[in-house]
Amino acid sequence: xGRLTDDMTRxxxxxxxxxxxxxxxxxxxxxGISELKAGVEKMQSGFRSEHAEMSRNMQANLGAFVSDLKxxxxxMQSGFRxxxxxxxxxxxxxxxxxISELKEFVSELAEDxxxMQSGFRxxxxxxxxxxxxxxxxxxxxxxxSLNVLRQEIAGFRREFAVDIAGARRAWFGHIPAGTVAxxxxxxxxxxxxxxxxxxxxxxxxxxxxxxxxxxxxxxxxKAGYYTFAQLAKSTPEKLQEILGGSARSANVENWxxxxxxxxx
Length: 264
Hints:
The chain is an all-alpha fold.
């Protein structure tokens, strides 16, 4: 029993020591927690103080920044308005000056254009008058030349027609050629003097007109057409009636025109 009692005594002592240690530990823990709480509370208090200070400083700084920003914006707006006003005034003056110069330029340009138009009209009128005069003189001279040429051609045709008619009468009518030539020369002379009568006029040779041959001249002679003047006074309908079926291939309008030229 003695040994057991010793063990029990020792165990009780250890338990007591452990309990005492636990109480010390708990006491130390409580003290540590108390100190930790105090530290935390102090930290929280300091943090709240610093946060409040920082907030106050930030608010003050922000207020100063906003106030300074307002001043700067106000200055910028004022400067912008002043610059805009000055620029507007300068632009208005420049625009007025430009408009004045433009009006002056347009006025000078209008005067130049008016002078150019006036000069052009005068030059055009002079040129037109000169050209018209030259054209009229040219047409007049051309008309005279054509009339002279037409008269010469008509004279050649008349002489040729008289010569051909005399030759044909000499050949087909068995008239001595010398007699026909003499008669033809005599009639030409009297025609030139204007003393020939209608009975003395020798029948014209219609074969000198394109499209009229001996057969068609014979039909025309039978119908009473002997001279270019008579043929010129006829009509296409009358000639077609005289020629009959052969008139379909004949250009009788040209016959009348050619006869009118030869009769002149």
